[in-house]
Amino acid sequence: MAFNPRPRVLYVDDHEDCGAMVSALLTFSQIETRVATNAAQALSLTEAEYFDLYLLEAWLPDVDGFELCRQLRHANPATPILFFSGAAYEADKKRGLAAGADAYVNKPDILALLRSITYYVSPVLVAAA
Fold first, then answer.
1. Is the C-alpha dihedral spanning 74, 117, 89, 24 positive or negative?
2. What is the DSSP annotation of 54-67?
3. Sign of the alpha-carbon dihedral angle for 67, 70, 74, 80
């Protein structure tokens, strides 16, 4: 297995345009990104690959993001989980944090998203330097 010094993020969002935009933004920021469009695909990827951070949308077609968050937290307790979602009510944020997320960023706040991701993957970035 080859060593990859770049942090790896799994972004789960069923909107292809959001997936492409966030992936391009993170790639530009030297963060490798994989995109899944549903919970089943995300869980399959987490079984096959290592990720430094999970980035979730609350609204997914097969299982809601909160349930996916619970499953990911159970399987990988140390991996940070962030929500980047259009579900912007305070109740949504509380639900995400209660499900095990480390942070919750409302779409379309890209600056807050980048700050949060950088905060959680900074140990990986420092180790790679």
1. negative
2. EEE-S--SSS-HHH
3. positive
CATH code at position 97: 3.40.50.2300
Contact 51, 11 (CB under 8 A): no
What's the mean pLDDT in 119-127? 71
pLDDT in tens, 34-83: 999 999 999 999 999 999 999 999 999 999 999 999 999 999 999 999 99
Mean pLDDT computed over every residue of the chain:
91
In a domain, 121, yes or no: yes
| Distance (Å, whole) CA 80 – CA 42 | 15
SS3 35: strand
Which tokens sit at 91? Answer: 């109740």
What pTM, to 2 d.p., does this model score?
A: 0.91
